[in-house]
Design brief:
- By secondary structure, the chain is mostly beta strands.
- It is built from two helices and ten strands.
- A ten-stranded antiparallel barrel has the order 1-2-3-4-5-6-7-8-9-10.
- The longest helix has 9 residues, at about 1-10.
- The protein is globular.
């Protein structure tokens, strides 16, 4: 159901990848300040609070995530612990590699390797729903508000149809 789709989706928010069909060009944000550097921001402990809305706009889930992020050279590990409003908990660990201004990311439920540049990430998520696996197109945008605060908005779609959206606010400790 929608809750199962949401849990799998939100556990994968940090796939950090690029593919899909966004109408906004990431390049138009190139001059924005402060500049988002994922290696700098995702270092240490970060709290996140978010909601998942279905395609009608109804909030079907709320969650809190704590991310323990650390880097060894250009390779980062994001250890994520999720707690949902209904009390359920989940864990996900991502490996992110920085290559110049681009990043690649891997995790258990991402199809292939996620790649992208700062601010926008697209990826395909293998999402189990009612005994089947659907490959969902994810379009993830990050906006650094100040050195400790980042907003994140991710849209999930299938066959070009929007299925839902996650809104997330991060605060670095």
């Amino acid at each position: 159901g929608a809750m199962t789709m949401f849990r799998i989706f939100v556990a994968s928010l940090f796939a950090f990848a690029l593919s899909g069909c966004a109408s906004v060009d990431v390049g138009q944000y190139a001059g924005e300040k402060p500049r988002l550097d994922l290696r700098e921001y995702f270092d240490g402990t970060i709290d996140g609070w978010g909601t998942f809305q279905d395609r009608s706009g109804k909030v079907v889930a709320r969650f809190h995530v704590v991310i323990d992020a650390k880097w060894n050279g250009n390779t980062g590990t994001l250890d994520e612990s999720f707690e949902y409003a209904d009390g359920k908990r989940e864990k996900r660990v991502w490996t992110i590699v920085k290559d110049g201004d681009r990043y690649t990311g891997t995790a258990g439920d991402v199809v292939g390797t996620a790649t992208g540049a700062v601010l926008q990430w697209r990826y395909v998520l293998a999402l189990p729903v009612d005994g089947r696996v659907w490959n969902m197109d994810m379009d993830d945008w990050m906006f650094l508000m100040d050195e400790r605060t980042m907003l994140n908005r991710t849209t999930m779609s299938k066959f070009g149809v929007r299925v839902g959206e996650v809104t997330l606010a991060f605060r670095k400790r």
